[in-house]
Amino acid sequence: MRKYWLTFPLLGLITQTALAAGDVNAGKQLARQGNGQGATACIACHGANGEGNAATGFPRLAGLNADYLAKQLHDYQSGSRQNPVMQPFAKAMSDSEIRNVAAYYASLDPKTGASRSATNQTGQELAMRGDWDATIPACISCHGPGGRGIEPEFPALAGQHASYITSQLQAWRNGKRHNDENDLMKVVAERLDSNQINAVAEYFANLSPVKNDSGNE
Amino acid sequence: MMKYFILITTLLLWFSGINAAEKRDYQHELPSSPDKAPTFTPPPESAIPDNEFGRMVRKGRDLFINTQQLRGKYVGNDMNCANCHLAGGRRADSAPLWAAYTMYPAYRGKNDRVNTMEERIQGCFTYSMNGMPPPSGSEVLTAMVTYHYWLAKGAPTGIALQGRGYPKLAKADKEPDIRRGKQVFDAQCAICHGEDGQGRTAEGQVVFPPLWGKGSFNWGAGMHRINTAANFIHANMPLGKPESLSEQEAWDVAAFINSHERPQDPRYQGDLAKTDKTFHKHQCYYGDRLDNHTLGNQAYGNPLK
Q1: Which one of B5, B199, B274, B278 is most buried, by most CB atoms within 10 A?
Q2: What tens digit of pLDDT does each residue of B178-190 get?
């Protein structure tokens, strides 16, 4: 009898974990076809493989942390993150759909590539060392080695489109984005000037999203 | 009349002498800079020369920022020098190296003799890094000292500079409180240092250092003092948000952080009460009984010993 007492809570735990992790296949379907209830296909903007779009500034989602992605969608739902395109889509999604689509994008290979251009020195300096004269800590002191993220709170930046990083830092700087914990990103973004934002965005965009031995660091 | 005056003065001097002897603190707090102290700006990194000397400066800088390179050899915990000396030791009010360099050799109550800069850095390895001191003349120590020296280029010697140590907070309005400190910790610190204070790693690297436990600084490090930690925290934490906590919050969270077990004081020789009495006559919880546990009683070891 004791055995059964143990089994049921365990089963419950397993089911809950599976739910929390999200269903990759269901997420894939939603990403490709939408949910028919107001959330259209993600791939229309974020690309067939979650690669995003540098020209339009739509972020790469492939390989990002599932909990980070889910939080962003919930924040769009609640309005703590604002975007006229994303908010209606997020509001049209259920909690489980959010979990599923987040799990799907997290499961995708971010398509690593070698650095596309020369290292931006100003950006590298900011990323690795910061600009302490302006009380700007090094980006990697929160976003982790190589800017590959300390998940889920501090998202990966490596290999993200420069256009997207730039737009987000500008949004934090001018108060349009504010869904970070304790204003940790806001206070730093406010101290960055536009040249620094562009430089650091270019630096991270040229890094590989997964660890490699290219000596980029 | 004069006779009484001399008598009273003698008695006063005598009493203060006794007092000084009894209260001699083996762990002097990092002195903060006096008012009107001269300011100083260290040279930019771009000014490091491209020669053998510059190579040693860079080596020292790299060791200072990524001290974990020395893990297992001289470093026994998860800390890097730059965790407590922000901006690679450049930042004023974050115990900058340029302000330390010009004040050595100096007498230190901690070991009751005059210490050179080398010995002072060795002390950091013994206590803050819970490790072993790199030997005098070793490349590691030479690189560290060279980096200090280069940062202090042009600074006046023997004069306390503005920004030295951590700015000293006024005595807390209310006695520092561990329970209130936990609330501050949960709200402001846990996102980086973890709810259990054990820091966070990524890809095998320590990104946010542990604040207590076996991977943190030991019971002999200056930071285990509630006042030193409060001073550091108020001026420097959360990272990127200096002076955002109230002074009371800094005091309380410093008390909370330092109310946990950490590696043993290296001067401990089997008698906690004696170690406490001899070396911990300052504002700390070492040897104190909190929640049915005497701190220091279950301290962690030194993995390099």
Answers
A1: B199
A2: 999 999 999 999 9
| A183: contact with B, CB 8 A cutoff | yes
pLDDT in the model for residue A117: 74
How do strand B106-108 and strand B200-202 relate by DSSP bridges?
A: unpaired
Measured between alpha carbons, how far is B50 from B193 in angstroms, rounded to an integer?
38
- The amino acid at B111: N
Distance (Å) from the alpha carbon of A171 to chain B's nearest alpha carbon:
18
CB-CB under 8 Å, A181 with B91: no
pLDDT category, B131, cuts 50, 70, 90?
very high
State pLDDT tens for residues B228-287.
Answer: 999 999 999 999 999 999 999 999 999 999 999 999 999 999 999 999 999 999 999 999
- Answer whether A35's CB lies under 8 Å from A26's CB: no
B188 touches chain A (CB under 8 A): yes
Which residues in chain B are closer than 8 Å to A153, comparing Cβ atoms? 191
Q: Do A150 and B208 touch (CB under 8 A)?
A: yes
Predicted TM-score of the model (pTM): 0.89
The answer for residues whose C-beta is within 8 angstroms of residue B76's C-beta and 6 or more apart is B129, B130, B131, B132, B263, B302, B303, B304
Closest C-alpha among A115, A89, A101 to residue A37:
A89
Predicted pLDDT at A113: 57
E-assigned strand segments in A107-198:
none
Quote the percentage of chain B above a pLDDT of 90.
86
A131-171: pLDDT as tens digits = 999 999 999 999 999 999 999 999 999 999 999 999 999 99
Mean pLDDT of chain B: 91
- Whether A144 and chain B come into contact, CB under 8 Å, resolves to yes
Q: Which amino acid is at A196?
A: Q
> Nearest residue of B to residue A149 by CA position?
B202
Residue B15: band (very low, low, confident or very high) from pLDDT cuts 50, 70, 90 = very low
Cβ-Cβ contacts under 8 Å, B90 against chain A: 132
Q: Is the ipTM, as predicted for this complex, more than 0.90? A: no
CA A35, CA A94: separation in Å to the nearest integer? 10
